[in-house]
Amino acid sequence: MLPDELLAFPIIEHLADVVLNESVLRTQSAPRRYFSFAEFARTATHGGSPALADPAPTESVLADPAATAVFNSFERNCTRRMANRPNTYLTLLHSVLHYGGIAMFTTLAATIHQLADGAELCSDLQLLYLCATVGPILYRLVDHEPLYVQILADLLTIMAHICPRIAELDADSSTDAIEQVMDFFCFVKDQFDPGRPAWRRIAPHIAALPPLLRCQLQSVVDQ
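Below the sequence we write its predicted structure tokens.
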């Protein structure tokens, strides 16, 4: 059996190459408008006529087969002949991490930290892909608080870096991928919570987010 330094670690470190260079991940997902009572009242006044409502939003990138296939199950992609590099790599990485130990989690955390420091990420789909990367192993990090805090803090740092590049992100709208990332953090806080001290260390990284996202996440942390 090859040592981790020759097999497992290079596979984990390959994450940076996939995230930075896959064109499908470098695309922003579609905008998603927040519910507005004022907008609801306006359209209701006109009888809810589609002609008087806002135009239909641009089709979501996540609805595009190439992007959707990235986040499908590997088995589903193989069955439908939609196999792709990001999804295949994600499946391999999860297998490596599932059978790995703390050294592999440390390598993963270091790789994500390198991406957070590099400031080269540009899209919400790249961020969503990183969340999909760490999601299945977070339950194992609850007992390793420093790694847990570092990974989530770096994801928030990446989010803060990406948000100013998303023109659709404002008080009235978000994007499909950003909303899924927000759901990810809510789920993590609810299901894999190492305790309030850990989240107090993560909380300062929320401050750099846009006001609405900051308030939403801060309310989750304060629960």
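Confidence is low (pLDDT under 50) at residues 49-61.
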